[in-house]
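Dig into what follows:

_____
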Amino acid sequence: KQWYQRRVRGIFTAASEAFCKKNINCSIKESYERFAPTIELAKKNNITIRGYVSCVAGCPYQGDVSHGSVGEVSQKLLEMGCSEISLGDTIGVGTPGKINELLKTILPFLPIENVALHMHDTYGQA
C-alpha cells in the first residue's frame, strides 16, 4: 500500500510542558484539544491512532520529567482513543535503571500490550 493508504496514524505530544511548547507550539492540554477531532475522524474511518509521548526520560528545556507526567499523558491518550502509546527517550538520556523505574511506576496504570518504547543507546548500556 502507498503511505497514504495505511490505516495507522500518529499524534505527537510530550510529557514535558516546555518541550511541548517548543516542539508543537502549545501546552500539553492544548495538544489534547488539537488531537480530539483527528482521533474522532480516525475512529469513524477505522484508522488506528498511535500516541507518541516525547521526553519520557528527560527534557532539553526543563531537565527531569516526572513519571507522573508520563503516566498522565499516556493515560489521557489511551482514554482519547489511541490504541498504542509509544514512550520516547527523545534526547537519549534514559538509562536501563531510569527506564525501569519509569515503567515500574506507570505500567500498573497502563495495559502493557498497548505500550511501545523508543529508546537510544547513548551510554552503551542497551
Remarks:
- The longest strand covers residues 8-14.
- Strands lie at 8-14, 48-54, 84-88, 115-118.
